[in-house]
Amino acid sequence: MLRPAELAATCFDNAVAEPFFASYKKELIHTRPWNDVTEVRQQTFVWIESYYNRRRRHSTLGYLTPTEYELGFRKIIGLAA
Q1: Which helix or strand (DSSP H or E) is residue 44 part of?
Q2: How far, in Å, CA of 61 to CA of 69, rounded?
């Protein structure tokens, strides 16, 4: 059975996910032994919400943190208004 053309795999399928999971494994998962899955889930949430999404510099944002980027965007919008 053939897959529909829109579902055909391309070399870009995981272009965004792969760097995220590489960072996740390097910066959190492989840093220490874990007691159970619940602990991993809790620390994953903390890592994503307090570090990865807020303080980590992103190349797509000109190597600014999301907070810095948002502040700059708001300044531009304020000047345009």
Answers
A1: helix 37-46
A2: 7
Contact, 40 vs 25, CB < 8 A? no
pLDDT, tens digit (0-9, with 9 covering 90-100), for 7-59: 666 666 777 788 889 989 999 999 999 999 999 999 999 999 888 778 888 78
HEC sequence for 62-79: CCECHHHHHHHHHHHHHH
pLDDT attached to residue 49: 87
Sequence-distant (6+) residues with CB within 8 A of 69 are: 58, 61, 62
Question: In the numeric block, which tokens belong to residue 30?
Answer: 């492989």
- Token match 């994503």: residue? 48
State if pTM tops 0.70: no
| CA–CA distance, 81 with 25 (Å, rounded to integer) | 43
